[in-house]
UniProtKB/TrEMBL annotation:
InterPro entries the UniProt entry points to: KduI, KduI/IolB_isomerase, KduI_N, RmlC-like_jellyroll, RmlC_Cupin_sf
Gene Ontology biological process terms in this record: D-galacturonate catabolic process; D-glucuronate catabolic process; pectin catabolic process
Molecular function, one GO term: 4-deoxy-L-threo-5-hexosulose-uronate ketol-isomerase activity
EC number(s) from the headed UniProt entry: 5.3.1.17
Protein name from the UniProt record: 4-deoxy-L-threo-5-hexosulose-uronate ketol-isomerase
Pathway: Glycan metabolism; pectin degradation; 2-dehydro-3-deoxy-D-gluconate from pectin: step 4/5
UniProt: Zn(2+) binding residues: H198, H200, E205, H247
Function: Catalyzes the isomerization of 5-dehydro-4-deoxy-D-glucuronate to 3-deoxy-D-glycero-2,5-hexodiulosonate.
NCBIfam families, per the entry: PRK00924.1
Length: 280
């Protein structure tokens, strides 16, 4: 079995007020992603959201069911979003194969029985970033390229946050039950993401940071707007953001990140914003 899974229970804002750096990292940092020849999962108890990765080398990796799911197949009661952040690869779902280039996405709906991941070149393997949420209905699988995305151009160089938000797995592009995913790319000279910061109490979110050079880092801000905390993030690491937490960041240079969320609704703009002068 080439699958590893961890489980984390939900933590409330009152507990987090007393956390030191190690406790914050243990609860919210996801630092075991992109392990070679392995499927890795973190099962969170925020919306039963799962974040993971699959990095196949010479042989295919299989999406195996897990004891946590109590199901014969992984997608018996779930949907799955995938974005490739590595070399070219392919995913086969119930006999149909989808080829994914760098930054391509794939949605797999509830009910797919057999799913496998492959790399075209083991020396430059695909790195499939995975998000999964419970699903009440079966929607069709769909391959979504960056060219298919709905792109929002936000921010400016003057405020250090000029960026493109590529909305890829959202309801204007593909039908899903509750899962949404997209890819934000900061322009050179810009470092701030998601400013003004916001909460959305009706859903959780996970940020996966990548395209960060080895000698650089991103400072991710979390917590209640008046009780903020921070985590230093390195390349190909993620942060679990509870519904009560803001999620924002600033890097030592520009970078990219994937956002994934699930919860009450599919309204992308359902958020409570906080201007910089309101944060503490």
């Amino acid at each position: 079995m080439n699958t590893e899974i961890e489980s984390r229970y939900a933590v409330g804002p009152n507990e987090v007020k007393g956390f030191d750096t190690e406790q914050l990292r243990n609860e919210f940092l996801v630092d075991k992603l992109m392990q070679a020849d392995k499927v890795y999962w973190l099962y969170t108890h925020y919306e039963r959201f799962m974040v993971g990765s699959a990095v196949p080398l010479n042989n295919a990796l299989t999406l195996e069911t897990l004891d946590n799911l109590k199901a014969a197949h992984f997608l018996d009661g779930r949907e799955l979003g995938i974005i490739n952040v590595g070399g070219k690869g392919s995913i086969t779902a119930d006999g149909e194969t989808y080829s994914l280039d760098y930054k391509d996405a794939l949605y797999l709906g509830r009910g797919n029985k057999s799913v496998s991941f492959r790399s075209d070149d083991a020396k430059n393997p695909a790195k499939f970033y995975l998000n999964s949420a419970p699903a009440h209905h079966s929607y069709p699988n769909k391959h979504v390229t960056k060219q298919d995305a709905n792109v929002l151009h936000l921010g400016s160089l003057e405020t250090s946050n000029e960026r493109n938000i590529n909305q890829m797995l959202i309801n204007t592009v593909v039908q899903t039950c509750q899962l949404q995913m997209g890819l934000t790319e900061l322009k050179p000279g810009s470092v701030w993401n998601t400013m003004p910061a916001h909460q959305h109490d009706r859903r959780n979110e996970v940020y996966f940071y990548f395209e960060i050079p080895q000698e650089q880092a991103v400072c991710h801000f979390m917590g209640e707007p008046t009780e903020t905390r921070h985590l230093w993030i390195h390349n190909e690491q993620a942060v679990v953001s509870p519904p009560w937490s803001i999620h924002s960041g600033a890097g030592t240079q520009n970078y990219s990140f994937i956002w994934g969320m699930a919860g009450e609704n599919l309204d992308y703009d359902d958020m409570d914003k906080y201007q910089p002068q309101q944060l503490r």
